Protein 1
Amino acid sequence: MAKDILPSLAQADAQVPKKKLGGYEFYREVLGSPKYVVAPMVDQSELAWRKFSRRYGAQLIYSPMINAKMFVDSTNKTYRNANFDLINGEEGDPTIDRPLVVQFCANDPEQLLASAKVVEAHCDAVDLNLGCPQDIAKRGRYGSFLQDEWELIYKLINTLHVNLSIPVTAKFRVFPTIEKTVEYAKMLERAGAQILTCHGRLREQRGQNTGVADWDKIRAVKEAVSVPVFANGNILYQADIDACLKATGCDGVMSAEGQLYNPALFAGIGHPIDSPDYDSDEQILIRHPRHADLALEYLDVVMELKTTTSVSGIKGHLFKIMRPGLIRETDLREKLGRVKIDPKKVKECLGAYRVVCEEMKERMDRDAKAAEGVPLKDLITVEPITGIKVMPHWLAQPYFRPSPEQKKAYALANAPLEVAEGESSVAVPVPVSPQKPKRPLDDCEPGEDAKRVRLEQVAV
């Protein structure tokens, strides 16, 4: 009799829905209390990059931003498969791609819910993008250009909160005042967001006007809500991660561009910053491996996956990872830019990229060998405008844009002195207009439309 009952009990137990966790329960029990998070980035946080990043200490990774309006259109199979490939079954696979948060941009609750339902079983949470500051977001009415439509935002988040079996999270930018930023964050929490990621920049802070993220506003958000908060902004080196966590009190740090240029940003992060060997060659190379080696390893990951990686995504990653070398080896930069690959035969054509990376490796190994005997810490220099340290050019490292204020201050401080008329012993600085900054090498590849490439590569 008991044997007859057991199967039915097992079946009944299997049909009982799992408890939907939220807040810190979700953060701890499902995500594993992540502190080091890779941001959602258009065409740059794809499956291959996510798998690659986990090797170097990333504990939680977001998918690229997906447009819910386009994703929900079942006739647009090309867009759906390119943004979340359900056919090959690797995206969201618990063995290689978890924990994972899938991010959408949207302005229609029904479209957002329908899109989220497609990926619901393949991720741990769905995130709403409220931070994208690009013109394309303005035209599409999503991202940070929704931040004045609180009623709509509430409905978008609450619809997912009520109807999904997994949590909803939100990533947003700050307002000019702490008070409005805090009220905004509280509204997102009331709507049902179980984790908040606060990007400490205004909507207007982008491109050459990116400027510095405001950690004080992030801290105010953290202190005002009861759900976990991730801080986003100003992360270039591991020391910045420690400083950010202390300054904001946040549960984790999310990195976008910092991790793109140095995928080992989170590697070996448990090693104490104040330890005597922190600046030893061994420890520096853990945090800043040789960039050509990283580029070749990334190509290996692309090759081993069944899921196709976009051509623009691959090229964007290679330009970013190897940027310190490409600035010097301009012929390799041109060669990398000229590589053309059939999107339908990516793996068959990857050899063309590999040739450039291997050439770069030979030249960087040459330069590293020439510096043998000198500790790496003694080869670190300082960028004069920002005061940020620069690693030897064969190592992976962040790329940073001096703000207009920094450029003006530097130009004024270094202006040539001119003797004032009639005052033979008095010198006054001659104002010098800073030169218009050159377009970053990786933002405009030869033969490609700069605006499109910029939109593809920007972190949102």
Note: Confidence is low (pLDDT under 50) at residues 1-16, 424-460.
Protein 2
Amino acid sequence: MLHSSTPAVCVRLLMAVGVLVSAGCAKEKPTPAPPVDKTIKINMVRGNNQRDTVGHVAPDTIVVKVLRGSRPAVGYQVQFDKPSCNVEPSVLSQVYTDAKGQAYYRWRLSGDVGTQTLTVHAIDSLGTEQAKTLAVATAVRPTSGWHPGACLPLGINALCQLPNGRVLAGLNYNAGVTNGFLYYSDNEGLTWQRQPNFPGPDVVSAIKATPQGELFVATGATNAPGALYYSADNGQTWQNRTAGISDPRMFQDISYTASGRLFVSTYFGGLSMSTDNGKTWTAANGLSNSDRFRNVVELANGDLLVVDEGSYLYKSTNGGLNWNRTSNTPLYSVYNLLADANGDLYASVDQCNGNIYKSTDSGASWQKIYTAPPVQSTCLKVTNLSKVGNTLYFMVGGIGIVKTTDFTTYTYFRRRPRGFIFMPTRNHTLLLEDTGELLYHLN
């Protein structure tokens, strides 16, 4: 009996041990890990609450940091949404975050005085906004000196002031601005708006206004047909007046004389004239179609003068139908030609000596009235002759803008322009293209 019971005891003991072992090996359920925070947020690092003049680029760079939870979101799309000027839409600038999750933006203020707002958006790969934040700046009115015009895209080709004071600016082709190649300013360059209804898109190469406020705008700046547009209502409606112009490729210049003669010069078509605001055109005889012309002026006796690309002076005594080259010295190399309201002529020469000449007898004789002060190793070429009232303005290479009323005393603005387009307004605000950007000067 002893031997028969022992196995049973042993089995029961083993089973008990097995239960104990099994019970001892049981594991507790693990605590779930906290969910990973993938929330996108934007922190403003630098550049908020700045203060500067309207139209200026704020002095400090806007820096934001995009986080996914607590970690930098690298390569994340960031859009800086700047409300633009007046009727213009918002301007979106798209960048991507760097290895620190940061994105950077230089904020050019619009033309609105007071608080301006910049909205920063974090955009995922599907184009969905995941977060946004705001930066603010205070824009103040300009004081004296040079300032950039607010709300005007880069790439200035032409400037013109209408009799009512409005200033027009013609621009290069800008893919980011739809039909935005003609802009206007009603405060002499401080702020700008897009001219509505202007045909386009194309490059604006020249602008001319008549004393009656009619407008002529030439477009096209490549070796392809351009166009000449006419408006009699300050740019509200436009008519194409190109038909009849000899080879309308690459318009170079538009001139309008005191007797109402309209002249246009194109790169391959020479000089064309119209006496009915561009409805019909006549090619000028005696001038080469392969030459380019500028600065047609009308003398008191009705004779006309024009300068060609080779800086030679031509004259017409029959209303622009026929032209002959003059031999007046020292004007064998004219660069700019200007006729003022008194009938006096001013000319700069295509040389580096900084000279200006004046004629009071319709160009029969000329007297030197100005020589630029010497600047070592500089071509003192005089360009952009303009007269407002009794004040003559011009630019001298290496020196900058000069003004005088008597050719005895001079004001030198001492700004060396990096562009060639310059115009004083009737209120003596100076407008200057500087590497594509328009600057204005307040006294």
Note: The two ends are 128 Å apart (CA to CA).
Protein 3
Amino acid sequence: MSPEEVDARVELAETRYLKAKKEADALLEDLFSAYVDAADAGRTADQLAKPEIFTAGYIRKKLRERGVEPRKGGPRARKS
């Protein structure tokens, strides 16, 4: 492969990667918006969690970042 072909291949791969990352970031935001709607409808982070996606703890953290208040009777914070 010539140096020009290598450079073109790198540039194409970078462009494809950046496009995919932008799409993935938008899809992630859609997912967390859906989690907020689900939490507002009464679903818990434990109900939303799936091993191949996110843990309940991570979902809870992201819901708090988006202004969703903890539900009464939910998990308690660990004592150190």
Note: The mean pLDDT is 92.
Protein 4
Amino acid sequence: MTKQKGVDKNLQNVAKDFEASPVNSHQAQQDQQQVNDHRHEDALNHEEN
């Protein structure tokens, strides 16, 4: 196994997501929708024809 040279970017993003606490349900829904939009866009970019 190789040694990690720096901080894991995925873990940084997960930690950042845990730090963000929505003020109300509308903000929570908006945050979740943004995550869903990014996943959908990523899936479209990786589609094979």
Note: The helical segments are 9-19, 25-45.
